[in-house]
Amino acid sequence: MSYVAVVAHVGVGDDGQVTIPRLDMTIDCGTVVNPDRVRAQLEGAAIMSIGNALYGNITVKNGSVEQSNYTDYLVPRIDITPETGGVGEPGVPPTAPAICNAIYAATGKRIRALPVDPRLLKV
Fold this sequence. Notes:
Blueprint: E1 3-12, E2 18-28, H1 35-54, E3 60-61, E4 64-65, E5 83-84, H2 95-107
Parallel strand pairs: 2-5
Antiparallel strand pairs: 1-2, 3-4
Helix pairs in contact: 1-2
């Protein structure tokens, strides 16, 4: 069994846009044979979780999915991702809640659904 903890540092603009300048993760995964592999897995988990928390929205209109490619289905790009430091899937579940708690600390607004809707965060 692995244990993961995540601390998200966020900024929320007046327009409700969330930035994540830093994301700290730690894992207790038992014996580590290849620390570089563990770090790479946690970095991937961080990026996947940021996508889930901020962009992972699929909408349906008239019985059809509206998103058809990456032009209209947003994923985290390098310019919005924090410098990650760090084992795969165990890092995914705690990251979105850490981001939402950091947004609450910054704005006083609780996030109850994902992805985070910037319209709810506007000042």
